[in-house]
């Protein structure tokens, strides 16, 4: 029962905080007015993608916590999570493609570091982060393109 509650807590906290930050930092007119690259996805895709990723991130966090407690891997997980939650206020809240880039680059590095440190310790957690790595890699390219175009 403790394991189930831990998984639920991680998933609810990650998706809940992510949703709250998303609601508080809606793209709005500023984002709509930006010149966008040809590969910019439609706005409707971000909600379902992030919800799915947050569930996977929550599961990986719970697995790490249950296996090791307050370890190096959970500290890396927490670091990438803080950067993740900081990105929307930096980019959308402050209307800054440059600050968004300053946040997303170390976030991408932290995701890679979590995968690398988890690969032997907990392959499932590492694999759960691969879609997240792919999406944040794409988001980094999109953020950099928006920075260069605007």
From TrEMBL:
Report the locations given in the UniProt record: Membrane
Query: Which is an annotated Pfam family here?
Result: TspO_MBR
* Residue ranges the record marks as coiled coil: none
For this UniProt entry, which segments traverse the membrane?
A: 7-24, 44-62, 74-92, 98-119, 126-149
Per UniProt, the keywords (alphabetical) are: Membrane, Transmembrane, Transmembrane helix
Predominant place of localization: membrane
Q: Which segment of the chain is annotated as a signal peptide?
A: none
> InterPro entries, per this entry?
TspO/MBR-related_sf, TspO_MBR
Membrane topology of this protein: Multi-pass membrane protein
Spell out the family assignment given in the record's similarity comment. Answer: Belongs to the TspO/BZRP family.
Spell out the protein name for this chain. Answer: TspO/MBR family protein
The species this protein was found in: Rhizobium oryzicola
């Amino acid at each position: 029962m403790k394991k189930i509650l831990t998984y639920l807590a991680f998933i609810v906290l990650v998706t809940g905080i992510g949703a709250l930050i998303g609601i508080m930092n809606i793209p709005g007119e500023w984002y709509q007015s930006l010149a966008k690259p040809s590969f910019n996805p439609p706005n409707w895709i971000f909600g379902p993608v992030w919800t799915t990723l947050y569930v996977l991130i929550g599961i990986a966090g719970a697995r790490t916590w249950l296996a090791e407690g307050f370890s190096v891997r959970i500290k890396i997980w927490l670091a990438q999570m803080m950067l993740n939650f900081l990105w929307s206020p930096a980019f959308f809240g402050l209307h800054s493609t440059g600050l968004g880039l300053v946040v997303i680059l170390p976030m991408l590095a932290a995701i890679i570091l979590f995968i690398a440190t988890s690969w032997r310790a907990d392959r499932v957690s590492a694999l759960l982060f691969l879609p997240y790595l792919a999406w944040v890699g794409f988001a980094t390219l999109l953020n950099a393109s928006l920075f260069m175009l605007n």
